Amino acid sequence: MRILVTNDDGAGAPGLHALAVALSDLGEVTVVAPDGQRSASGHAITIAHPLRLNMIERAAPYCVYALTGTPADCVKVGVSVVLQAAPDLVVSGINYGANSGANVTYSGTVSGAREGAMLGLPSIAVSLEASDHPDFAFSARVAREIARWVGSGRPGAGLLYNVNVPALPPDRIRGIRLTRHGHSRMIDAFERRLDPHHQPYYWMAWERMFHDEDPNSDGHAVYSGFVSVTPLLLEQTDRRAIEQMKAAGFEEIEGRLLLR
Fold first, then answer.
1. Cβ–Cβ under 8 Å, residues 207 and 189
2. How far is CA 149 from CA 26, 95, 113, in A?
3. 206 lies in a domain?
4. Is residue 199 in a domain?
5. What is the pLDDT of residues 26-81, one digit of tens each?
6. Is the pTM of this model over 0.90?
7. Does residue 188 lie in a domain region?
8. What are the tens digits of pLDDT across the range 157-212?
9. Ramachandran sector of residue 47 (left: φ over 0; alpha: ψ -120 to 50; beta: rest)
């Protein structure tokens, strides 16, 4: 099995290398990651600047390329330039900090996996809840087992798996819970500061976390000590809303526009 690994914390991040080592048991691993921190970059791609690719490590059991782009760029370049063929699996992570609820939208880690899914490839995003002393070893073992399952050919098209691991010792992890994408989010706050010229600027400084109280949600599961695994679809259409809008006569707007 050929596995493409990326992240948003940069090519030197310890979580990335813990993941690559663990996945090397399953097949040939190639890492293409940003050359620096790209957290909260979402699904951005680079179109106005050149992308520069450098091999920074060719050590068994995997090689590492650093790209001057985003996680989504890394998957695109990894598939088209480095591997020159579709890998069997794309895995993004291990991110420092959980990516549940609203963070799924902002996350470069999840977007790396989403780009793989957009290319029709089985894809996984893996994140570890933030702590003072992150231990990526257990998260890497979780990722390897989920990758083994996903790589066996079970996933459907247009699907990625978002995995979040609590920052707890392995013997305190309560199990794995299959979850839905929840509504947990940070409560925003902006700290006003002055630069050396006494001009104001603002620095985002979150106050606290709003937790989803639904026990079936991703954020609640991690908060409760479970590894959360959420299958996410690329298709985001609310078909029920379409039927409700039709029933309410929304399509009659077209007729009124054409008559004017």
1. yes
2. 11, 21, 16
3. no
4. no
5. 999 999 999 999 999 999 999 999 999 999 988 778 999 999 999 999 999 999 99
6. yes
7. no
8. 789 999 999 999 999 999 999 999 999 888 888 999 999 999 999 998 865 677 78
9. alpha
116 is written with which tokens? Answer: 């793989």
Which is nearest to 65 in space by CA: 43, 45, 82, 46?
A: 82
Q: Residue holding tokens 């026990």?
A: 215
What's the domain range around 93?
2-183+212-259
Report if residue 81 sits inside a domain.
yes
- How many domains would you assign to the chain? 1
Angle at 46 between CA 43 and CA 51, to 5 degrees: 130
Secondary structure E strands in 68-189:
89-96, 123-128, 159-165, 176-178, 185-187
- Here the CATH number for the domain that contains residue 71 is 3.40.1210.10
Closest to 139 (Cα-Cα) out of 182, 174, 100, 170: 170
DSSP 8-state assignment for residue 171: G
Please report, for residues 96, 192, 234, the alpha-carbon distance to residue 14 in angstroms, rounded to integers and kept in the order given. 9, 33, 29
